[in-house]
Amino acid sequence: MIPTPLLVFFVFIFGAILGSFLNVCILRIPLGQSIVNPPSRCAACGRQLPLGVNLPILGYFLLRGRARCCGAHLDPRYPLVEAGTASALAALWLLYPPELFAIYALLVAGLIVASGIDLDYLVIPDALTIGGVVAGISLSYLFPSLQGKEDPADAMIRSALSATVAGGSLWLVARTASWLLQKEAMGIGDAKLLAALGAFLGWQSLPFIVAISSLIGTIVGIGILKKRKQKLGVKVPFGPYLALAALLWLLGGARLAVKYLPNNFS
Fold first, then answer.
1. Same structural domain for residues 122 and 11?
2. Fewer Cβ neighbours under 10 Å: the N or C end of the chain?
3. Same domain, yes or no: 230 and 204
């Protein structure tokens, strides 16, 4: 038997490597480029990065935040994504059995890529949102425990209904707000992302995710407006806050719901 601390360490290392790949996805997917070919290259000069330079997390600090090939500043988001992915996967490994860990690791990876792209382009690709809905419903059928069910059909139906309620509700709110404000209040991609979260996590996660993401988004949004001295109306990506709220649900929110609301969250 491998000791638990050593297993967690291995999962952390795997998460850091996965985070490095997710950085590539964030950069290339919006540009329509392949995420596997060519190999990792310097974003400034285009030279291929040697393996020793491309170390997750540590590489950024060993290079002191500058590319060795051309001296260009490296985006500090690279080690943040790598460390964040590694930490999230290590925590999920401690909380869930291997079957659910693998599914939630896939979900978290998709959320990180969606958040990074949303921050850069204020859009979330359909491949991540609609693809997430399809993946959530399919995995719920293959692994009914994802929805707390034993029957595959019941689990799939619950996943599909949760996705419909989640996406439809947020879409309705967004359209209503846009009509009242006479301008786009929220992108349709956010509704699709919430639908994907519903497909994976079930309807019981939705009140928590919506409430926490709205709270975090409001606080951060007000801070950004004050710092930049901008008026209301500036577009702020909401996808990262939905993703963060979903992660918090996985790391403890679900257990709190079951503990304090056992009759309604089952």
1. no
2. N
3. yes
**Run of H or E including 155:** helix 152-181
Q: Please state the pTM of the whole predicted model.
A: 0.90
Angle (CA) 228-122-65 rounded to 5° is 70
* pLDDT for the residue numbered 263: 55
Q: How far apart are CA 191 and CA 239, in angstroms?
A: 9
Q: How many residues does the chain have?
A: 266
Q: Tell me the residue type at 5.
A: P
| Secondary structure element (H or E) that encloses residue 190, with its range | helix 188-201
Query: Are 129 and 8 within one domain?
Result: no
pLDDT of residue 220: 86
Domain boundary (53, 68, 95) is at 95
Helix H or strand E encompassing 84: helix 77-95
* Rounded Cα–Cα distance for residues 244 and 84 (Å): 11
| pLDDT reported for residue 181 | 67
Tell me, what's the pLDDT at 110?
97
Is the same domain home to 212 and 91?
no
Say what the pLDDT of residue 130 is: 96
Q: What angle do CA 56, 82, 238 make, to 5 degrees?
A: 155
Kindly state whether residues 77 and 155 are assigned to the same domain. Answer: no
Q: Cα 126 vs. chain centroid, distance in angstroms?
A: 14
Domain count, the chain: 2
Give the range of the structural domain holding residue 56, as residue numbers without chain letter: 1-95
Whether 108 and 209 share a structural domain: yes
Last residue of a domain, one of 95, 122, 143: 95
What is d(CA 261, CA 207) in angstroms, rounded to the nearest whole number? Answer: 12
pLDDT of residue 185: 61
Average pLDDT per block of 10 residues along the chain, 266 residues long: 89 96 95 85 74 80 82 89 97 95 98 96 94 98 95 96 94 78 75 96 93 90 70 74 96 77 54
